[in-house]
Amino acid sequence: GIELDVALVPRREEGMTPYEVMLSESQERMLVVVQKGKEAVVEAILQKWQLDYAFVGQVIEEPELVVRDGGEVVARLPIEAVVGEAPVYRREGIEPPYLVKAREFSPADLPEPADYNETLLQLLGSPNIASMERLYRQFNYRTETVLVGPGSDAAVIQVPGTKKALALTTDANGRYCYLDPYQGGMAAVAEAARNLVCAGARPLALTDGLNFGSPEKPDIYWQLEQAVEGISRACEYLQIPVVSGNVSLYNESAGQAVYPTPIVGMVGLLEDYEDHLTQGFKNPGDLIALLGETQEELGGSEYLAVCHGIVAGRPPRVDLEREKRLQSLCLAAAREKLLHSAHDCAEGGLLVTVVESCLTASPEPLGAKLAFASSLPVVSTLFAESHGRIVVSLPEAALARLEELAAEWEVPLQVLGRVAPARLEVEIRGAGARQPVIDLDVAALVQRWGEGKVEGDN
User: Fold this and answer.
1) Any residues with CB less than 8 A from the CB of 403 and at least 6 apart, and which?
2) Tens of pLDDT along 379-410?
3) pLDDT digits (tens, 9 = 90+) for 56-94
């Protein structure tokens, strides 16, 4: 249990009652449990950063929550009543009727793209994929501690005075949750964690923001409940605690609710900032490899939405065990410094992931020459958004060790091709593929990606 003394809590106003102190929702506060004997160490850190603080209580053996106001006990109740038996407000939830028709849709019924070059360029102009530089260049992010700024899977910031660094990312996909809120909730957590391991960081904790319509409507309540259950399942399996959150409900216009959209913000730790990775390719001639496996999963994809105007089908399913193994593999490879880049497969699928690594190469964009086998239809091979995949680049000398690690973690590994100077060429063997499938100058990719419309443009 715990014992708290509200008389010790710093307050902005005089005359607050113990009841008000315990229930106040003032922002910019955090409760920390300090290991006994380490109080001075924690105090030194708090004083260094000029933070207000106070030691307000202690952990006790009795399974009780005891609240004191100086010498007076103002509340005493079983701890289980607070953490395990608190009343849960449950409304009636009903699966939305639109899902019946949405699940019946099969992307296989659509015609194959007539021109894969044009399809790729169309995707690169999508608001969810186009460069966001015009937005983030409007604020100053170039400080001494920023190791990786906007434009990669995660930002990486060095902890001053140490070798450690923090990686930060956010993730959401409203279409996935619209089509399957349980899978969509899991996907938001899984992708955020993948973003962090692609930066070389071990996920530590997350905060969530739940954006939904009116929970008084049974179908909206069902979406909210399912998404929260999905987030909970992924957090438990990946062992990532939820340390805070925010809820925004009743988001509707003319009776139409927004897509059910849980947003996940996640932070991770690098013990040594020199182990950090970025998503951009580094050297022409490096191998490009796919960690993980592509499935025939086009439901809810950017390809369907942008190229066909369709939001339907079953979204990609999250396999948490595969996710865990993939993330462990990526972290192990990063710590052994085997990789030159890592980028998780998400919106747009495998081809867009490779192109993003080309276009975020430093100091100048690079190309890629891919030639690999696939038993899937070409459109699924290139644009399916299966979870549990990461595209990496590495020197050829590191391939044997990466293959050993992949076998150890039971993660499929497929060499796709090599980083090239200034052109994107893609050939796929099998499934009746035409060759080449893609043949574009990098300059055309840069132009389309940079010109793509993003939310907030005039």
Assistant:
1) 413
2) 999 999 999 999 999 999 999 999 999 999 99
3) 999 999 999 999 999 999 999 999 988 888 788 888 999
Q: Which is nearest to 170 in space by CA: 188, 187, 182?
A: 188
Is the omega angle on the peptide bond into residue 436 within 30 degrees of 0, that is, cis?
yes
DSSP designation for 78: E
Residue type, 374: S
CATH 3.30.1330.10 fits 98-451, yes or no: yes
Q: Which of 128, 228, 129 is nearest to 186 (CA)?
A: 228
Confidence of residue 458 (pLDDT cuts 50, 70, 90): very low
Q: What residue type is assigned to position 77 of the chain?
A: L
**334 neighbors 270 (Cβ within 8 angstroms):** no
Q: Report which residue type is found at 222.
A: W
Contact 386, 294 (CB under 8 A): yes
Strand pairing category for 367-373 and 423-429: parallel
Q: How far is CA 310 from the centre of its chain?
A: 24
Give the residue among 75, 59, 64, 63 at the shortest CA–CA distance from 22. Answer: 75
- Residue spans of the domains in the chain: they are 2-83, 98-451
Dist. CA 358–CA 419, nearest whole Å? 8
Instruction: Kindly state the tokens that stand for 182.
Output: 């349980």
> How many Cβ atoms are within 10 Å of 96's Cβ, its own excluded?
17
d(CA 392, CA 342): 4
Q: Scan for tokens 């979406």, then name that residue.
A: 223
Q: Assess contact for 285 and 418: CB atoms under 8 A.
A: yes
Question: Which helix (H) or strand (E) segment is 222 a member of?
Answer: helix 218-238
CB distance 344 to 208 below 8 Å: no
Give the pLDDT confidence score for residue 432 in this predicted structure: 55
User: What pTM, to 2 d.p., does this model score?
Assistant: 0.90
Residues 6+ apart with CB under 8 A from 314: 103, 179, 180, 297, 299, 300
The answer to whether 231 and 191 are in contact (CB under 8 A) is: no
Q: Is residue 225 within 8 Å of 182, Cβ to Cβ? A: no
Asked if residues 189 and 234 have their Cβ atoms less than 8 Å apart, the reply is yes
